[in-house]
Design goal:
single chain, 373 residues, six-stranded antiparallel sheet, 2 helices
């Protein structure tokens, strides 16, 4: 950053001095200024966006028989695993250049299976100081050459390693393992046509539908005293399927009821918020009951709620809630105190609060629940 600021100042001062020294005309000043700015722009440009990983070397691992061979410009590993335990089939590479600022590992690869379940893309990063960090992604596509991406967010420190500052230092990376995490008995081949870290930001091409093609598969978490009924009728916008949740809260004490849907396995890097189409009628009560309780559940159990709470609506309304608007619940705990988007496992759309002494009933409809790019 200091280098960039200095170059910018030098460029501007140089332009000013040159204009004064040679008494340039306005048109000449424009041409000279353009040249200076272009030079500064190139000087300020970041290092290479993509940082290739080459000379991939197969790492020996117990419980897996594997052979590596060169195929064209890439490598192919044929493997066979006969045990039920989880193993990491990895190839080691020395990174080219400083990895500071990288956002993801990108592989152009293909997995072919002769038997077993699809493996997961994974990486392990070794710091020169001794820290070892890892991440396991989602099941990889089988049978086709495709680009697979693994975001660096959510890297975890391996239990067997120690890290002095407790954080991943990308400028101190000594080596990287990339490959597949395999479970159960599985055999097949793994081809890597290109491997690289990238500093380029990633934006998904389309929303990720949490509820799939229909209304979704919902379950309910609630206080035992709440009475409720959850259905998925064709009562959504234009007659499409939706989640319909009818409930009755007893009065006088705090209650909660939460229809919940699991998030499908996917790379969540690049999505910016939760979008839903809904309408709702809520019972009278304390201020908590004046809006919906929309929760994002991380895999470790921590819960984040949308703030402000989406208000009730008599007619269908589409709302985009940025992930930055979610706050850690006062009843919840998280080891880092922030929402890790790549760790979101479920979404809840319900209510909590204290109804009037007589109690009260309400209904919530939800359709097209997606993560928006």
């Amino acid at each position: 950053m200091c280098r960039q600021v200095c170059l910018w100042v030098v460029g501007v001062l140089g332009f000013a001095v040159a204009c004064r020294a040679v008494k340039m005309q306005p048109r000449e000043q424009v041409l000279w200024g353009t040249t200076c700015l272009l030079a500064v722009t190139f000087a300020l440009a970041p290092d290479d966006v993509d940082l290739p990983l080459d000379r991939l070397r197969l790492v020996a691992v117990n419980g897996v028989t594997a052979q590596r061979q060169q195929v064209g410009g890439g490598v192919k590993v044929t493997f066979n695993k006969t045990g039920e335990e989880r193993r990491f089939l990895a190839l080691e590479a020395q990174p080219r250049g400083n990895l500071s600022g990288v956002k993801a590992l990108v592989l152009r690869c293909r997995v072919n299976l002769a038997g077993g379940q699809p493996p997961r893309l994974a990486m392990k990063v070794f710091e020169r100081g001794g820290g070892v960090w890892f991440k396991v992604g989602q099941p990889i596509a089988v049978g086709q050459v495709a680009e697979s991406r693994l975001s660096i967010t959510g890297l975890r420190l391996a239990e067997f390693s120690e890290d002095a500052n407790g954080q991943m230092d990308w400028d101190k990376v000594g080596k990287v393992w990339v490959g597949l995490v395999v479970d159960g008995k599985v055999s097949g081949s793994f081809e890597i046509h290109a491997a690289q870290f990238t500093r380029a930001p990633y934006t998904p091409h389309q929303p990720l539908r949490i509820t799939g093609d229909g209304a979704g598969v919902w379950s309910v978490m609630q206080d035992p005293a709440v009475q409720s009924k959850l259905t998925t009728p064709n009562e959504g916008p234009n007659g499409k399927p939706c989640m319909k949740f009818e409930f009755t809260l007893p009065g006088g004490r705090h209650m909660y009821t939460l229809p919940t849907v699991s998030v499908p396995e996917a790379e969540l890097d690049g999505y910016r918020g939760l979008q839903l189409t809904y309408k709702a009628t809520l019972p009278a009560g304390n201020p908590l009951l004046q809006g919906l309780l929309v929760l994002l559940h991380e895999r470790d159990g921590s819960q984040y709620y949308a703030s402000p709470a989406p208000p009730p609506a008599a007619d269908w309304r589409t709302l985009l809630i940025p992930f930055a608007s979610f706050t850690l619940g006062e009843w919840s705990r998280d080891e880092n105190g922030r929402l890790d988007v790549d760790q979101i496992a479920a979404v809840s759309i319900g209510v909590h609060g204290t109804a009037l002494e007589a109690g009260g009933s309400g209904v919530i409809y939800a359709a097209d629940v997606v993560f928006a790019p």
